[in-house]
Design a protein that fits this description.
The chain is an alpha/beta fold. Helix content is about 30%, strand content about 20%. It contains 14 helices and 20 strands. The strands form four sheets. Strands 1, 2, 3, 4, 5, 15, 18, 19 and 20 form a nine-stranded mixed sheet that branches. Strands 9-10-11-12-13-14 form a six-stranded parallel sheet. The chain has a three-stranded parallel sheet with strand order 6-7-8. Helix 7 runs parallel beside helix 8. The chain is globular and about 70 Å long. It binds (4S)-2,6-dioxohexahydropyrimidine-4-carboxylic acid.
Length: about 450
């Protein structure tokens, strides 16, 4: 029994795998793309099809967001898997990879299973969960399934998820072969600099405490370990010009890196406007860093984009620095931010789709996603590239209820979001009955 009809999306501007566009039709059968053609005759279709008129809209592969913090279990006052997946649907994110710093931490198979069960019950989009490294859970890291990889917080974390000792780090790189994703900030340097800036309450010092050097030191260490063991490494949210230059000189074929829209589009000037809402880890940097990161992305030194969606409530953010938590939400705004940049001529729409979908699928070995072609999963978004609309606090679906980009006038908002052939979001309405699926990874 199909819970949803087959689809025929008509007359949209379809992004093809070669980066060119075709104005035409897409036939979706049982959640998969069956046919892409200039015109598909209704006479050729057998059975019931819902037709969607895509005239004037652009059809892109759904966004795969490879770094989010969705807070369930344990921190549901900030976000939960249901509210986060609604925000994903609105933002065109059809799959996400979530991080282990929930309560309990996702550091065992049992905790991973629990998240998978929760997601199956309430997520409107597809899901995968990282397993978190501690200094003690090597056996779990070797066997946990399904997971996109091992997450290591080298710094900027407290408790069991902080793995900052050289021996513990090396032991993780030395054993096993699955992907290791690092939050690369050097804990020792952060702690030293914290005491230097003790007593400062201006959140702008956050970028001086957790400075470029702290990020570079950790990225250098992760890169050295990855080279020593030829271990698949992914560097999460690259934030500095220095790290981008390092990778430009020295990036083995088994290393990938990502950048967030925040680190491309916001910088330390944001503290004056939005105060602690601009506080995140790794912190916002300078305009120069923005520019170097953009160039690195354009040149393929950086492979793809992640939001690091890290919601905290406005009440939590209203405390005084350094008591304020780091992090900002992002899944609702990442695609329109990048498509707006494309419309401004900073990159192409095809590049945005590559950075937000195809390259992520490739890096994590997610089969049949990231392209609009027969046989691929029907995870698709229809966006309007010609209608600008501001980011409004009253419209966001993330439970935290704010965005660092409020007031930004963006285009490329999803009009339809389709997950596995189910319409999960349509012109402002969610389909609350839709459910995503657990992702599988070829790593
Ligand atoms: O700013 C951040 N917030 N960076 C992280 O790595 C963690 C995240 C969170 O979970 O709040």
């Amino acid at each position: 029994m199909l819970a949803y009809p087959n689809l025929l999306i008509r007359r949209s501007q379809i992004l093809l795998p070669n980066g060119e566009f075709l104005v035409g039709d897409v036939q979706i059968d049982r959640g998969k793309i069956a046919q892409v053609a200039p015109e598909i005759s209704e006479m050729s279709l057998v059975g019931e099809y819902r037709q969607i008129d895509g005239t004037g809209l652009t059809l892109l592969p759904g966004v795969i967001d490879p770094q989010v913090h969705f807070r369930e279990p344990g921190l549901e006052h900030k976000e939960d898997l249901f509210t986060a997946s609604c925000a994903c649907a609105r933002g065109g994110v059809t799959s996400f990879l979530e991080m282990p710093n929930t309560r309990p931490l996702t550091i065992t198979q049992a905790a991973l299973n629990d998240k998978l069960q929760r997601a199956a019950a309430k997520c409107l989009v597809n899901y995968g969960f990282f397993i978190g490294a501690t200094a003690e859970n090597l056996p779990d890291l070797l066997t946990a399934e399904p997971t996109p990889g091992i997450k290591i917080f080298m710094g900027s974390m407290h408790g069991a998820l902080l793995v900052s000792q050289d021996e513990a780090l090396e032991a993780i790189f030395a054993q096993g072969s699955r992907l290791i994703a690092v939050h690369a900030e050097d804990q020792e340097r952060i702690e030293e600099r914290r005491s230097l800036f003790a007593g400062h309450t201006n959140p702008a010092v956050h970028s001086q405490i957790q400075d470029n050097q702290a990020a570079l030191l950790a990225t250098q260490q992760a890169l050295a370990l990855s080279k020593k063991y030829r271990r698949r490494l992914h560097i999460l949210h690259l934030s500095t010009a220095e790290e981008a230059d390092l990778l430009r000189r020295d990036k083995p074929s088994w290393v990938t890196a990502e950048v967030t829209p925040q680190h491309l589009l916001l910088n330390i000037s944001a503290y004056e406007k939005i105060g602690t809402l601009a506080q995140m880890n790794p912190p916002l940097r300078s305009l120069h860093d923005n520019q170097v990161l953009w160039q690195a992305l354009l040149d393929g030194v950086i492979d793809f984009i992640a939001t690091d969606h890290a919601p905290h409530t406005l009440a939590e953010k209203a405390q005084t620095y350094p008591n304020t938590p780091s992090g900002m939400p992002g899944v609702e705004t990442s695609l329109p931010l990048m498509l707006t940049a494309a419309m401004e001529g900073r990159c192409t729409v095809a590049q945005v789709a590559k950075w937000m979908s195809a390259n992520v699928a490739q890096a994590y070995g997610i089969a049949n996603k990231g392209a609009i072609a027969p046989g691929y999963d029907a995870d698709l978004i229809l966006v309007d590239l010609n209608r600008y609309h501001p980011v409004l606090r009253e419209e966001v679906l993330t439970k935290c209820g704010w965005s660092p980009f409020e007031g930004w006038n963006l285009t490329g908002w999803p009009i339809f979001t389709i997950v596995g052939g189910q319409v999960v979001y349509e012109r402002g309405q969610l389909n609350l009955a839709a459910r995503g699926q657990a992702l599988r990874f070829g790593n």
